[in-house]
Amino acid sequence: MSDHGLLVIGSGPAGLSAAEAYRSERPDAPVRIVSADVSHPYDRPPLSKDFLRGETEDVTLHPAEWFTERNIDLTLGTAVEHIDTAARTVTVDGTSYSYDALVLATGASPVPLSVPGGERVLQLRSLDDGRRLRDAASSARSAVVIGAGFIGCEAAASLASRGLSVTLVAPDEVPQQKRLGDEAGRRLTALVEATGVTYLGGVKVTAVDDGAVHLDNGTTLDADLVLAATGVTPNSSLAESLGISLEQSRVPVQADMSTSVDGVYAAGDVAFAVNTAAGRALAVEHWFDAESQGKIAGTSAAGKDAGWSDVPGFWTTIGDADVKYASWGDGYDEATFVEHDDGFTVWYTSDGATVGVLTYNADDDYESGEELITERKPPPAAT
């Protein structure tokens, strides 16, 4: 193996865990992370929660000393101009860097709100986005959050905790209706509304004016602040420039995170990765899975065996409520709701086998659910 080491494009959890895993296997090889983000690597989940609520300023993933101690070069605010996979070089702001292995951990970007006035709305993906949103909330009395995914629900609850009058609007009658089902959506609605948020479902935004959001049912909502939490799209253009054919707008990779191009790996939101336990490729957008895939990519890039087999999953915090979800994420046949004294569990099955679990105050079900999903066994509610 030559001495050009690893080059990682992207400074999120996938990129950092790839660099760390590679460094642990190859302590003397060069490791460099390059990123278009100008901010020191940070944790995104707090941006819609305690950071937005003003309860913390520290969202760094690792302090500067962490990179120095591991001899990992960190180059921020840079634009990748060209990748030559034959020569194994990456040109960044006019400087060419050689590599033995390249990891694409380029993440995803928010989907713009494509309505008149959509350029007025705020988004929440980067630390700079988080600062803009928090600053706007300081002088706002009312807010409209567009999109009832988990980020939208979290952000709406956090804004309400700051004393704003918040309306959460979405085309689904209840949050996450298509993904999680009607009853789960109703319970999420209750958790969101318990924070003081008003949920308005079954509507679409048609336009945004200064201080107003117009809906397709003729309603106009007053809003000093408007946040669009309308999903993300993978940053896959670099992969396309290498001749990689995308699937579901993502980079197809094997379970070891290798792409069709020799020496190039991909991990995180940009990857469409084979999961050995699922027996198929999956698209995920969760922090834990990005970190896990990054570790696998870095280990594989160092010449060691590694493969992705974890059940994708994450936690979300809506106000004071922690909701946990694990699932293959590509559909189910039936959802079975189980009521508990102070919470609930939803078991998702396909052909009788557990393919997902959603819990609120039911940690035992969440933990056993991951095993049932992996082992393709039916849930307790079905036995």
TrEMBL record:
Keyword line: FAD, Flavoprotein, Oxidoreductase
SUPFAM superfamilies in the cross-refs: FAD/NAD(P)-binding domain, FAD/NAD-linked reductases, dimerisation (C-terminal) domain
Q: Which cofactor does it need?
A: FAD
Is Flavoprotein found in the keyword set? yes
A molecular function (GO) held by this record is: oxidoreductase activity, acting on NAD(P)H
Please give the coiled-coil regions recorded for this protein. none
Domain of life per record: Bacteria
Question: FAD/NAD(P)-binding domain spans which residues?
Answer: 6-293
Cellular component, GO annotation = cytoplasm
Name of this chain's protein:
Pyridine nucleotide-disulfide oxidoreductase
